[in-house]
Specification:
Belongs to the ABC transporter superfamily. Ycf16 family. The protein has about 250 residues and is of the alpha/beta class. It has helices at about 40-50, 70-75, 95-110, 115-130, 150-160, 180-190, 205-210, 230-240, 240-245, and strands at about 1-10, 15-25, 30-35, 55-60, 65, 80-85, 90-95, 140, 165-170, 195-200, 215-220, 225-230.
Amino acid sequence: MLIIDNLHAEVDGKPILKGLSLTVNAGEVHAIMGPNGAGKSTLSYVLAGRDGYAVTGGSVTFRGEDLLAKEPHERAAAGLFLGLQYPVEIPGVSNLLFLRTALNAQRTLRGEPEVSGAEFMKLAKAAAEKLGLPFDMMKRAVNQGFSGGEKKRNEMVQMHVLKPWLAVLDETDSGLDIDALRVVSEGINAMRSPDHATLLITHYQRLLDYVVPDHIHVLMDGRIVHSGGADLAHKLEAEGYSAIAA
């Protein structure tokens, strides 16, 4: 589904990704761990096409197409979802309006018919209920006045409505208490299917107790330096990244 080959990228002229290669197959969950400044968030932004992140080498193929040749909205329509470490607030725009507009914009780009208001409300209510987000919050401005946990649950609702092929979740466990972590993890697990893949970016092993990955990769100094199974997270928790770097 996703093939990253020798990817190099820089920010403000400073190299951050320095030859990163990674393959994520359909149906798999991959976790990326690494110290601060290793390039984890940069990878997510490069995949999503964020301004200011310049690709200087390598390639990214997503579902057989050149991802880097697409604009950010085209990447979203192609089935890429980015969950932000710090979800932004959008005053004056309700969650329902934002999400329906996004869904129909993607469907239009794919040549699919728009979802009716009634059909969308059914989708949104089901997703909110599954993720434990009171539906009244869907009527409020996007993330405005939401706690950290509510913002992350709201992102999970967005993911369940948009149904991407690949979800890139940048530290989605950040700022979550244990109850919110459990609910968000259930939302991630509910998306698992033979056609869907997830790339989890995290500092901590605790998320991976709930969302057990197929593969864990250690990202250091802009490249993948080690890969392993789910037990690798416990090794890193106990020994730190120095054991990998040694």
